[in-house]
Task: structure prediction
Amino acid sequence: MEPTQRTVEVRAATASDWWWLTRAGLSPELIGTQYHRAETPLQLLIAPTRGTPLRPGPRCIIEVDGRRAGYIGRNPLSGNLEYFLQPWARGGTGGRAIEAFLAHRRRGDRPRAFFVSHRNPRSRAALERSLERLGWTDEADVTTTDGRHGWRITVHRTEPTGSERTS
Result:
């Protein structure tokens, strides 16, 4: 099936997602791509905490074709926005999930940053394409800072302007 034909939904995380978020967050496939190897021990705290409302802010499950496929929301330790997808769900779905999250799940939220590892240019490209499709391209909407291990992409806009196109 073509990625563009897949259904992508972003919904609020619930208590019943806890086990899935914990297992998915501890996946060895994320080490070195989603987070630096030195951060691996922290995932023992972060992964199970993603599914709890300990910190306010949006926490969402990405579903592809009706199956849990990823997470987008706050990192419970840093407060940065993060997202990840299972390998089977990649290929055009991440950008659509990011768009839906930014346009509809962040109303009234404060500006937040995504941290994207230098080892994960695919995620950065998906995020930037989503921001462009939303029309959020100037510094009042988004700023990008290159750091030692990755890019900090701060999303200042929290409200759709009405001209954004989301699918």
